[in-house]
Amino acid sequence: MRGFEPLAPKHWQFDFPTLPDSLFPEPGKQKADPIIKISRSTTFHAIKSLSNLFSLSGRVRDCSIVEKRPERLIKDAINKYIRWALYDANLEIGSGSLPVHVIHAQGKNESILFALERLNKRLKRLALRHQKALNEVFTIELPLLLGFIICGPVVAIMTFDFEILKRTENADGKFISQFDLAERGQDVWNSLSMTIAVMHIRNTMIGLSEKGYGGYLNIAKPRATDGDL
After folding, report:
1. How far, CA to CA in Å, does 66 sit from each of 60, 63, 143, 152?
2. Does some domain include residue 130?
3. Would 200 be classed as within a structural domain?
4. In which domain, by residue range, is 65 found?
5. Is 17 part of a structural domain of the chain?
6. Angle formed at CA 90 by CA 89 and CA 92, multiple of 5 degrees
7. Which of 195, 182, 192, 197 is nearest to 57 (CA)?
8. Which residues cross the membrane (predicted)?
9. Tens of pLDDT, residues 19-75
């Protein structure tokens, strides 16, 4: 659905003049709210965070020139955008929290199959933690867990459905899509795909937090690192 829903507030179009008009709300027309909303953050930090994600593909291609593996670069960029998204929602994942996502970057000596197996196991362990916590809470809809796996310049997104876990202990995550960040001409669309996934993570955590679930930390007070977001 990339490109079929407004992505950002209308006034951001001045900062992203090359993006299609369809990615912004149309004046005078009733349409869905933009996927990216600002709650606590400044417009400057929100735009800067998105711009950094848009520049990721170019930095990934540079890795091939200097013969450097791009997995860590990609993982750090996704984590940085998640930190901004949660900061904007006054949330933070602490040591006792229940996140709704997992990120795994392929190691130097890992095969792609082994990396996939590790991500799947981590998603399953996270699902079991949620399942145990939800046994005491009956009014909360089961969250859809999301996993990023990074192999070379390729980012794949998987989901883990609790309903499958109820039917079998050998439940596996479901592959959704993959994006090659080294592919020229797809920089913006690939970044938008990751943006949408991060917004899903944030919205899920907001919904759970409002019901007192998840153990997410409230970070309403400004911190010394806020300027780096």
Report:
1. 10, 5, 41, 14
2. yes
3. yes
4. 36-221
5. no
6. 100
7. 182
8. 142-160
9. 888 888 877 665 668 899 898 889 999 999 999 999 999 999 999 898 899 999 999
